[in-house]
Specification:
This protein is mainly β. It is built from three helices and eleven strands, in the order E-H-E-H-E-E-E-E-H-E-E-E-E-E. The strands form two sheets. It has a six-stranded mixed β-sheet, with no helix packed on it. A five-stranded mixed β-sheet has the order 5-6-7-9-8, with no helix packed on it.
C-alpha cells in the first residue's frame, strides 16, 4: 500500500506577519513527505526553512512580486521551486498548486472545467490554493479544492492560524485542516 502525507501551507506573509514561521508549523509537518506552499511567502527563506523537513514546492502569490513600495514584500528571486502554477503527479493523482483559484460558486458564469482549463494544462484531481487566508476544502464532482488558510494571518488577524494535509493512500485522498494551536 502506497501512502504519502503532504503538508499544505499558504499565505505565511513573512516578514509582514512576523519575523519567522511559527514553530508549531514545524511540529505539525514533522512527518510529511512533501510540502506545498500555495503562495504569498514574501521571502524565499520561508521555503528554505521548510525544506529540511521535506521537499518543498511553491506557487508564486500576488504578494511575492516586488511592488517597490512595501519593504516587507521584496519579491522572490528566481528559484526552481517556485512557479506561478505547478502541476504535480503524486501517487497517481494530478495535483495543481496555485495561489489564487476561485471556487466554482464564486464565478457562476464559468464551469469548473473552464476554471481548471484557464490555469492548468491537463486534467487535475486536486487543486491546492491560497490567497483568501480562509481554510476550507470542497469536493466538486471528482475534484478536490483545498485551501490550508494561513498560519499567521487567519481572517487578516496576526494570530496563530491553520495548515492543511493531504493523505494519499492508493489514490484515496483524505484532506484535513488543523489549527496550529493544537500543536
Amino acid at each position: 500500500m502506497c501512502r504519502m502525507l503532504i503538508g499544505l501551507i499558504s499565505d505565511t506573509h513573512i516578514p509582514e506577519a512576523g519575523p519567522e514561521i511559527p514553530p508549531q508549523v514545524f511540529k505539525a509537518f514533522e512527518n510529511v513527505d512533501l510540502i506545498l506552499h500555495a503562495g504569498d511567502m514574501h521571502i524565499i527563506d520561508v521555503l528554505d526553512w521548510l525544506e529540511p523537513l521535506a521537499p518543498v514546492w511553491g506557487a508564486q502569490g500576488n504578494g511575492d512580486h516586488n511592488d517597490g513600495i512595501n519593504p516587507n514584500r521584496p519579491g522572490l528571486p528566481p528559484d526552481a521551486r517556485v512557479e506561478e502554477v505547478h502541476t504535480l503527479q503524486l501517487e497517481g493523482l494530478r495535483v495543481g498548486l496555485i495561489h489564487g483559484f476561485p471556487l466554482p460558486h464564486e464565478l457562476p458564469w464559468r464551469t469548473l472545467e473552464e476554471l481548471l482549463d484557464l490555469h492548468f494544462t491537463r486534467p487535475i484531481d486536486i487543486v491546492v490554493c491560497g490567497d483568501t487566508h480562509m481554510a476550507r476544502f470542497d469536493w466538486y464532482d471528482d475534484v478536490l479544492i483545498i485551501n490550508p488558510g494561513s498560519p499567521t494571518l487567519p481572517g487578516q488577524i496576526k494570530e496563530l492560524g491553520t495548515v492543511g494535509f493531504l493523505e494519499i493512500n492508493d489514490r484515496e485522498v483524505v484532506p484535513s485542516i488543523v489549527n496550529l494551536s493544537d500543536y
